[in-house]
Amino acid sequence: MAKVSVYNMEGNEVGNMELNDAIFNVEVNEHLVHMAVVSQLANNRQGTQSAKTRSEVRGGGRKPWRQKGTGHARQGSTRSPQWTGGGVVFAPKPRDYSFSLNKKEKRLALKSALTSRVQDNKFIVIDSLKMDEIKTKTFAGVLASLNVNKALVVLNENDLNVVKSAKNIPDVKTALTNTINVYDIMKYDTVVIDKAAVETIEEVYA
User: Fold this and answer.
1) Does 33 share its domain with 131?
2) Backbone angles phi, psi at 89, to 5 degrees
3) Last residue of a domain, which of 64, 96, 128?
4) 74-81: which pairs have CB atoms within 8 A and are 24 or more residues apart?
5) Which of 65, 123, 128, 136 lies at a C-alpha separation of 20 to 30 Å from 102?
6) Helix (H, G, I), strand (E, B) or coil at 16
7) Per-residue pLDDT tens listing for the chain (206 residues)
8) Among 100, 113, 115, 137, which Cα is nearest to 187's?
9) What are residue 175's DSSP bridge partners?
10) What residues contact 144, with CB distance under 8 A and at least 6 apart?
11) From its phi and psi, is residue 45 left (phi > 0), alpha (psi between -120 and 50) or beta?
12) Distance between CA 206 and CA 204 in Å, rounded?
């Protein structure tokens, strides 16, 4: 089993923790990780972009000049794409960009992402992450003591003091064990997670 150090909020090592190999030491499947990220980004797209084709633009019903004898190129409508105010060729229309992965693929992608962070020594376990008050400066000090800048902070319980303290720090995001996803794990350089959250993840995904 992979073993990681456990730190306190002051950045001091207070012990070790063995991680479940079925989650934190799997063979990293880069293709599934990529697909999971693309899927999440695609599913977040609104898909509401729209423009009018020549059949939808107002006006242009009359032929602007006769077919022959003017010296101009023949034209059938002032709303053809080459005219100012004309329609758009192959205009974008509202569409659904979303696609889904099956359950096994999602789980393996998440395990691969977590494994990659453990292998890169970017997985920091804290014995307990609790705060008595909402204080951004205090939380920033915790991250500084752990030598962490861009971090995904994973909590086992929704501690509002911690969540609100981290909210105003750039490049820091908080998440619960049931809301973690591949995109966030790969986006942020380091995963900072409390010990109870690790145990919950192992119970759910083992």
Assistant:
1) yes
2) -75, 130
3) 96
4) 79/54, 80/54, 81/54
5) 123
6) strand
7) 778 899 998 888 888 899 999 999 899 999 999 999 999 999 999 999 999 999 999 998 899 999 999 999 999 999 999 999 999 999 999 999 999 999 999 999 999 999 999 999 999 999 988 888 999 999 999 999 999 989 999 999 988 999 999 999 999 999 999 999 999 999 999 999 999 999 999 998 87
8) 113
9) 154
10) none
11) beta
12) 6
Tell me: do 14 and 79 sit in the same domain: no
Full residue range of the structural domain in which residue 67 is found: 47-96
Residues 136 and 187 both lie in one domain = yes
- What Cα–Cα distance (Å) separates residue 144 from each residue in 9, 48, 155, 161, 173? 10, 42, 18, 18, 15
Phi-psi region of 60 (alpha: psi -120 to 50; beta: other; left: phi over 0): left
Residues 6 or more apart from 120 whose CB is under 8 A from it?
none
Domain CATH code at residue 141: 3.40.1370.10
Output the six-digit token pair for 192: 């900072």
Q: What is the rounded distance in angstroms from the CA atom of residue 107 to the CA atom of residue 130?
A: 29
Burial grade of 189 (CB within 10 A; 0-12, 13-18, 19 or more): middle
